[in-house]
Specification:
With 309 residues, the chain is mostly beta strands. The protein has a domain at 125-267: Immunoglobulin-like. The protein is 6% helix and 45% strand. The chain has helices at residues 2-6, 18-31, and strands at residues 8-11, 14-17, 50-52, 76-86, 92-102, 115-121, 125-130, 136-142, 147-154, 164-169, 175-178, 187-192, 195-201, 214-218, 222-228, 235-243, 249-251, 253-254, 261-262, 264-267, 269-271, 276-278, 283-292, 301-308. The strands form 6 sheets. Strands 10, 11, 12, 13, 16, 17 and 20 form a 7-stranded antiparallel beta sheet that branches. Strands 3-4-23-6-21 form a 5-stranded antiparallel beta sheet, with no helix packed on it. A 5-stranded antiparallel beta sheet has the order 7-8-9-15-14, with no helix packed on it. β18 and β19 form a beta hairpin. The two termini are 74 Å apart. 17% of the residues are buried. The model is unreliable at 20-29 (pLDDT under 50).
Length: 309
């Protein structure tokens, strides 16, 4: 070893100990060792899977229902429609959690009397042939655009010169739409506890303003009445009347008792309870209902609903 330290060689004109060259050799060999045999990388892209009103976070965190101001002398109910869309390959169970806050700097408000609930939409449908005086097929369908449509169709060729139709909702305290006016039957009429109003001609023309929640139409052998679902309770009673063959055909009405009682039961919404199951590839429509009682303390309130697992 001592001889190795003393022994020198000439490298590029310089005298370097052999021992230093040996160390350099060791370093070069060490640097050339293979550190690993390969690198495997996984790359995952994660999407939300459950969308609120078609939006992922953070946009779904910015959905705002705008309510008109009101006074403490009024009882007020706000209803806002939303939907959950499951784009995942598995079912989802979610919870709707409400929270109420108020601006305490404006006064001693209270959220205790504010009631928040959730309703799930029900797609109501009905179909039956009524045969009392000429066969009339009666259907009720949800048109998926916020309306229910009643259609009366004569199975046999109508014999009446002018087809006649009535749909009544929650009689006797509700309202009705009819072509009867105890006279010429020359138009469509809306009636409730306050009276009767001619809203349009028989063909639907010359419709007056203020009745946009009702639509009507007449064909050769059928008639239709469309009513916006916002005008209907979650569960309602209905009845009808047709005259397509010069004779009365009562529909969903018990005439064996006095007064006569409607028997048609329509359901367009039912209360949702947690957890709510949203099946894979489906959409669940729901309505947030916020009820403010009369004499609610006059401050600014914020009611939020969080959709969570």
């Amino acid at each position: 070893m001592k001889k190795l330290l003393k022994k020198k060689v000439n490298v590029f004109g310089k005298s370097i100990p052999v021992f230093v060259i040996a160390l350099l050799g060791i370093a070069l060999v060490s640097a050339a060792l293979l550190p690993y045999f390969g690198v495997i990388t996984g790359n995952a892209v994660v999407s939300q899977g459950l969308l609120v009103d078609g939006e992922e976070m953070p946009k779904s965190g910015d959905i705002v229902d705008v309510w008109a101001p009101f006074t403490s002398l009024e009882a007020k109910t706000f209803t806002d429609a939303h939907y959950l869309d499951n784009t995942a390959s598995v079912d989802a169970e979610v919870h709707l959690i409400s929270a109420c806050m108020f601006d305490a700097t404006l006064g001693a408000g209270s959220c205790d009397e504010i009631d928040t609930s959730y309703l799930g939409e029900v797609e109501y449908s009905y179909s039956r042939v009524w045969t009392a005086n000429g066969d009339v097929n009666v259907t009720v369908e949800d048109t998926d655009d916020g309306w229910l449509k009643w259609t009366y169709t004569a199975i046999d060729t109508p014999t009446a010169g002018t087809l006649k139709m009535t749909v009544e909702i929650d009689n006797p305290t509700g309202f009705g739409v009819t072509t009867f006016d105890d006279g010429s039957h020359d138009g469509w009429y809306y009636y409730d506890t306050s009276g009767v109003v001619r809203i349009s001609d028989y063909n639907g023309g010359n419709k007056i303003s203020g009745y946009d929640f009702v639509e009507t139409s007449v064909d050769t052998n059928s008639m239709t009445v469309r009513i916006k679902k916002t005008e209907l309770d979650d569960t309602f009673m209905w009845q009808g009347f047709a005259n397509f063959h010069l004779a009365a055909n009562w529909i969903e009405l018990n005439t064996a008792v006095s007064p006569w009682v409607p028997t048609g039961v329509g359901i367009i919404a039912t209360e949702l309870t947690n957890p709510i199951t949203v099946l894979t590839g489906t959409t669940v429509d729901f309505v947030i209902v916020n009820k403010f009682p009369q004499m609610t303390y006059p401050v600014e309130y914020t009611v939020t609903t969080t959709v969570t697992a």
